[in-house]
Amino acid sequence: MKFIIKLFPEITIKSRPVRKRFIQRLQSNLQIILQRIEPKIKVRGLWDRVDIDCPPEADALYEQIVMALGDTPGIAHVIEVQEYPLEDFDQVLDIVKRVWSQRLAGKRFVVRVKRSGQHDFTSNDMERYLGGGLLQQTDALKVDLHTPEETVNLEVKGEKVFVVERRIAGIGGYPQGSQEAVVSLISGGFDSIVASYLTMKRGAKTHFVFFNLGGAAHEAGVKQVSYYLWKKFGSSARVKFISVPFEEVVGEILQNVHHSHMGVVLKRMMLRAAERVSVKVKAEAMITGESIAQVSSQTLTNLGVIDRVTEGLVLRPLITYDKQDIIDLATKIGAYEFAASMPEYCGVISDRPTVKAQLKRVEEEEEHFNFDVLEHALENARVTNIDAVAEEFKQPGQLTPKHELQANDVVVDVRAAGEQQKKPLNIPGVDILTVPFFKINSEFADFDPARNYLLYCEKGVMSQLHALHIKDQGFENVGVYRPAGWSVGYIERKRCDVEFVWRFYGWQ
After folding, report:
1. CA-based nearest residue to 290, from 258, 272, 315
2. 27/40 Cα distance (integer angstroms)
3. CATH homologous superfamily for the domain 179-392
4. In terms of pTM, does the model score above 0.90?
């Protein structure tokens, strides 16, 4: 079994030294990836291609090898070939007939020959001979030079002929590691996933930084999708997953920043933190999944104000993408279910947000922010090698929401203060505590251990995630409250993607 790797066209137009460097990088990446599958696979980089020779024991791993090649950046397409010594046209016809006769039955076809070396015939000579022979000796319908249903591809190199048995599309791009390292601000949603993929495809070694607003369950989900992206598209590089606890930062914003500027200030805080992380991992740029006007903080005016907070380079691969285009690409790369199952947290602090933030006003709002909170978050950031993340995966526990309350139950309203004021929770005969979600994890230890506390939020996402996080800390007197008649059907009507959260984490 032999594969010929055809380079991404942009590589072939580079200068000789750059092209050589790209080919060497692609060869090295393929060696790392394929030798994990079968150590005896040999990878050889040449001027115009990369050859892969597989031993007989690799035949059983065929699909695994093909999948790895199809997902490796830098490859335009992969040609599976059989190699034979070149004797004469009749010998080549016999070989081609054996391989293609069944596939050509009843179809229009064309023969394409690519030749290199010194021969006493041209590529056209061989194409005409093989085309006529196949038409006479198989059940092919006709030769069609313009709109064929099947294309019989051959390559002649010196005294060898390569018969193409299968053509596999690659993802293009540049070899992983051929560009400088970057950090991707990943939340696990469609935008950040696709932005990370596009950056990896372009050859940048991509570290992942996650701003944790939802506890252990949300972090577990983001780790899984980050590991998936790395394993599928960038496993030849050693990258980091950095988790920054951001709940206190959000709390500080909610308490001290005007509601119209909360979204912009939050994004500026994230960029501040990401810049510090990028310096630590020696990255040259920060990647976000923002696109023009998708949400209020992503107007051009607001993006300009956000970017002023950092001297680092901020790249937005999706800046002109439509949302459906992003979802379609996420589906194509196999990440739809991951993205659909992730709740959106930036939206929890949005209340009549401005779309035309002024830098001076934003800086005035930030004067009320205690930056010690941001420093504390960065000090408590956790850095993990991405290949070790798989060892940390654990399925979050299952918390069945309660509909009927008992005398010992206390309902804890974890919504933000603005939501609590707009729609106060009133349950006659039941004790109710109002503790915003960003404080519940730190304050729960002070609650009466003799009572049972049920977390409540309107959409049901925050309450589940934080209850699971508290339970992970060793507390058993925590649960989730759901009013009678509040079902998954209700959730779907309120927010179409939340149903995936329940299914993904097993919260039925």
Report:
1. 315
2. 15
3. HUPs (3.40.50.620)
4. no
pLDDT tens, residue order, the chain (508 aa) = 889 999 999 999 999 999 999 999 999 999 999 999 999 999 998 888 899 999 888 888 999 999 999 999 999 999 998 889 999 999 999 999 998 999 999 999 999 999 988 999 999 999 999 999 999 999 999 999 999 999 999 989 889 998 888 889 999 999 999 999 999 999 888 999 999 999 999 999 999 999 988 667 778 888 889 999 999 999 999 999 999 998 889 888 888 888 889 889 999 999 999 999 999 999 999 999 999 988 888 899 999 999 999 999 999 999 999 999 999 999 999 998 888 877 655 445 556 888 898 999 999 999 999 999 999 999 999 999 998 887 665 555 557 788 888 888 889 888 766 677 778 888 888 888 888 776 777 788 888 888 899 988 876 667 777 787 788 778 888 888 888 755 443 333 333 333 333 333 333 2
**Could you tell me which residues come within 8 angstroms of residue 359 by beta carbon, excluding any fewer than 6 positions away?**
305, 308
Fill in the amino acid letter for 350: S
Q: Where do you find CATH 3.40.50.620 in the chain?
A: 179-392
Q: Under DSSP, is residue 226 helix (H, G, I), strand (E, B) or coil?
A: helix
Residue in the block written with tokens 């979050």: 396
Those residues whose C-beta lies under 8 Å from the C-beta of residue 429, and which sit 6 or more positions away, are none
| Summary count for the chain: helices (H), strands (E) | 20, 18
Cβ-contact 305, 358 below 8 angstroms: yes
User: Secondary structure of 492-507 in the HEC alphabet?
Assistant: HHHCCCHHHHHHHHCC
CA distance 326 to 169: 21
Active site members: 457
The pair of structure tokens assigned to 221 is 């989900």
Q: Longest Cα pair distance anywhere in the chain, in angstroms?
A: 98
Check if the beta carbon of residue 190 is closer than 8 Å to that of residue 327: yes
Instruction: Return residue ranges of the chain for CATH 3.30.2130.30.
Output: 2-172
What are the φ/ψ torsions at residue 305 (nearest 5 degrees)?
A: -65, -40
The sign of the dihedral angle between the CA atoms of 175, 179, 185, 191 is: negative
d(CA 271, CA 349): 17
Second CATH level (architecture) for the domain 2-172: 2-Layer Sandwich (3.30)
Class of domain 409-505: alpha beta
Amino acid identity for residue 159 in this structure: E
